[in-house]
Design a protein that fits this description.
Blueprint (H helix, E strand, L loop, with lengths): L8 H5 L3 H14 L6 H14 L3 E5 L2 H11 L7 E4 L6 H8 L3 E4 L11 H9 L3 H6 E5 L10 H10 L5 E3 L7 E4 L2 E4 L6 E5 L13 E5 L2 H11 L20 H11 L2 H22 L6 E2 L18 E5 L2 H10 L29 H9 E4 L7 H16 L2
Parallel strand pairs: 2-3, 2-4, 5-8
Antiparallel strand pairs: 1-9, 6-7, 8-9, 10-11, 11-12
This protein binds pyridoxal-5'-phosphate.
């Protein structure tokens, strides 16, 4: 069996290579390299796809989160509640604005912030502390929505805006208020990343904020260009958060295939679920993901990552690597144990579910083009590892 990478960009590019190259060539020849008509077209498509009124293309998923917090005026002395278990950007942007991150532990099944823990923290705080909480950022980790119903209820009770970190979850669906909503469209703002490994990935960095709030949308557009409106006149301080035209052009090509890729990832995830079940590896050794919504919800989980929990995770990872199988740990250190956040005063043991996830999770290759044989090889190797004792 040849090497099975965690993600195979070559395989994705192969059937669309000519389309991508012609889209890039068109941008080169247009001499319009920043923002412009392609960015606008992508914004319109993603806003519609996600069920939001406005979309603002930005330079990365990190900048999408940063600009969303800036639009709410988050700064020194403010607090932002989020998960301790995500990619660094989620917490990094809070600290960069001089605000303090408040962590609430995850739900061990969804891997995203548990609304009960948010409520518990808020309940115990005096009114003047609660007033300092300027946002809640749930993360739809691995491609499945957080428990948005209860998160929105808690946030609503305390009047705190919700910014969805949907970097890994574009198109993921969630039943909400009698209809099916898509990731990013439930809170006040939603943030996407177009990092190449995402289900919709560019050929470099890119991101987007969506919102149905017209005033916020205008503010985000102004913040994206250093706060200038009109050009060279600044009533606020923004940054260079512009999306390159070439990324939009490539993303527009890839966007046509996005639902098909989601579906292939889902098929592959279900195949893993079934094959692991048939392999009869005890639950004490591995657990496959437990997605919450199926039935009428088409993209309940877009499987940006297929993440198992594994006993002796690091040894399993080395064994798989030695057998040509690429895996990754998302993420090995929760935020509260990161050196740069020591000043927040958290300690080991504060968020047991996040710490356990950091010790046990392992992402397996689930990209759309992986073949059934390759998946069977992965399952066989996992089984072999645990049968060696
Ligand atoms: C959950 C999460 N948040 C934020 C980001 C940041 O996105 P980007 O890498 O595009 O800056 C990522 C991407 O890696 C992510 O996975």
């Amino acid at each position: 069996m040849k090497r099975i990478p965690l993600l195979d960009i070559d395989a994705q590019l192969k059937p669309i290579r000519e389309e991508v190259i012609s889209a890039v060539t068109e941008v080169i020849d247009s001499k319009q390299y920043i923002l412009g008509k392609r960015v606008q077209e992508l914004e319109d498509k993603i806003a519609r796809y996600s069920g939001s009124h406005h979309a603002i293309g930005v330079s990365s998923g990190t900048d999408a989160l940063l600009i969303a917090l800036m639009a709410l005026g988050v700064g020194k002395g403010d607090l932002v509640i989020t998960t301790p278990y995500s990619f660094f950007a989620t917490a990094g942007v809070i600290a960069r604005l001089g605000a303090a991150a408040v962590f609430a532990d995850i739900d061990p099944v969804l891997y995203s912030i548990d609304p009960a823990n948010i409520e518990e923290w808020l309940k115990k705080r005096p009114a003047d502390t609660i007033k300092r909480v300027k946002a809640i950022i749930p993360v739809h980790l691995y491609g499945q929505c957080a428990d948005m119903k209860d998160i929105m209820d808690v946030a609503g009770n305390y009047n705190i805006p919700v910014i969805e970190d949907a970097a890994q979850a574009i198109g993921a669906e969630y039943p909400f208020d009698g209809s099916i909503k898509r990731a990013g469209s439930i809170g006040l703002m939603g943030c996407f990343s177009f990092f190449p490994s995402k289900n919709l990935g560019g050929i470099g960095d890119g991101g987007m904020v969506i919102t149905s709030d017209e005033v916020l949308a205008e503010k985000l557009k102004i913040l994206r260009v250093h706060g200038a409106n009109p050009k060279y006149y600044h009533r606020m301080i923004g940054g260079n958060f512009r999306l390159d035209t070439v990324q939009a052009a490539v993303l527009l090509v890839k966007f046509k295939y996005l639902d098909g890729w989601h579906e292939s990832r889902q098929t592959n995830a279900i195949r893993y679920d079934e094959s692991f079940r048939k392999a009869n590896i005890p639950d004490s050794m591995i657990n496959t993901p437990s997605p919450l919504y199926r039935g009428s919800v088409r993209h309940y989980h877009i499987y940006n990552q297929y993440v198992i929990r594994a006993a002796r995770r690091n040894e399993l990872r080395t064994f798989l690597e030695n057998n040509g199988i690429g895996t990754e740990i998302y993420y090995p250190v929760p935020f509260h144990l990161q050196e740069c956040f020591t000043y927040l005063g958290y300690r080991k043991g504060d968020f047991p579910y996040s710490e356990k996830a950091a010790d046990e999770t392992l992402a397996l290759p689930v990209y759309p083009e992986i073949t059934e044989d390759m998946q069977m090889y992965v399952v066989d190797k996992v089984k072999e590892f645990y049968s060696m004792g």
